[in-house]
Specification:
The protein is α+β, with helices and mostly antiparallel strands. It has one helix at about 20-45, and strands at about 1-5, 10, 50-55, 60. The protein has one domain (about 1-70). The chain is elongated and about 55 Å long.
């Protein structure tokens, strides 16, 4: 078991003991999670560069107001 930053323990995965199909599925999940993390980091980096972000006339981010109710849907094939 490994401890993470937030204190949760994660189990170690032995890819050699898995079937090819299961190994492929696990690797794809890890890849998708990493891509989401990278996209989220890029979004935050971009948001921090601006005082205010407006989409269709609505302010969705302002340095004075905490970000609430904003979500993004990722299509992994298009990233």
């Amino acid at each position: 078991m490994m401890a993470t930053k937030n204190g949760k323990t994660r189990r170690k995965i032995d890819l050699l003991d898995m079937s090819d199909a299961e190994r492929t599925r696990v690797i794809e999940q890890i890849k998708q999670n990493l891509q989401r993390s990278i996209s989220e980091a890029r979004l935050w980096k971009t948001l921090l560069q601006y005082d205010e972000l407006t989409i269709n006339g609505q302010v969705i981010f302002s340095s004075d107001i905490p970000l609430e109710g904003f979500s993004m849907r990722f299509d992994i094939g298009k990233i």
